[in-house]
Design brief:
Length: 448
Amino acid sequence: MSQGKLVILGAGESGIGAALLGKQRGYDVFVSDGGAIKDIYKQELAVNHIPFEEGHHSWDIILAADEIVKSPGIPEKSELMHKVRERQVPVISEIELAYRFSKDQKIIAITGSNGKSTTTALTYHIFKEAGLHAAMVGNIGLSYARQVATAPADYYIIEVSSFQLDDIKTFKPNVAILLNITPDHLDRYDYKMEHYVASKFRITMNQTKDDYFIYCMDDPEIMDYMQTKTIYSTSIPFTIMEPLKKAGGFIANDQLNVQLNDDPVIVSIYDLALKGKHNLYNSMAAGIAGRTMDIRKEKIRESLTSFKSLEHRMEYVATVRGVDFINDSKATNVNSLWFALESMEQPVVLIMGGVDKGNDYSAIKDLVQEKVKGIVCLGVDNQPIQDALSDATPNMINTGSMKDAVQAAFKLAAKGDVVLLSPACASFDLFKNYEDRGRQFKEGVREL
């Protein structure tokens, strides 16, 4: 018996995962994408006998759905969503659909403006090293729905965005991590920071006292929200500002401490695999998540010191004639760039630029003056960067391709310097996505 008509809007990894799970669980599934669908996804849909369309939307089919799974990339302001909302068709996100069929498993969900992917990967590393049957899903790797459909796990470590949280109804992680909240994607939230903050906090919406909420108490947006709203889960903070007398994570005497009971995890900050102040936060959050699931402290300590960082996130590429090259292509907002610069101890030649999302570059001006000897702009429109930062660094160069950018940066750099790709912008002007941008950077370095 059919569970009803399920229409999937958008045929990226998230949409295809939802389609496969929906079909498997007895829904009458139809996939609609206003753009082109990748060949590999079309083949999957065809093999699984799931009807689809691309390049347009069939309103009659979409509006006749019992339920719609909306891709995180489709804005509420689109004509498509106006029509759906007018007709009052129920809309959910892919993580909501996946949750329906994995409620009995343990779910650790991680969100924040910056550091999500690193913390998700580190948390997964801890769980895997502890011998648990865990899967890393969401915005990193396979979609949550695809994993539930094809290779169910006992623990799901999920990277979730605010867009995915906007369309949840019952989704309830056993452990929710909120790393930080800085301005990002405000175009999707009527340019109102409070709407974006509320969206991030939806991760706690359905939690009870039996669940955990792990949060950064050094983040003003998080702390302001928590002073006015009730969080029903067991809240555990982490901070680098002061030692804690209660459960949580903190830094003291150059040691990272995670205490959730009378037996704390203690690791020298110099032994941590991930360097930089921002990664102290990420390491504490992941360590606390491990302790909530009773992973032994020895395993957590080992994992925090053995983890290998992600591709495109402060990824060391090579040293060419004494110049280090670092790929931080995943830095798609100003705050990510700030963290990258903050962790640098060598003089920096910075490659930045791309699709500007209304960035305020003044936040990094002091760091640029202190650490950056030259900026290589890479994008179609570099004017906002030039206007904001040209007087903060002695050298500023415009380029129109990654190859040119790498060569220009290498010319500016001297032995002992670092060339850092940390764009602070989206990648869609010159590249398919941030991965494509990072790969082209690495190719450019190899060709030097």
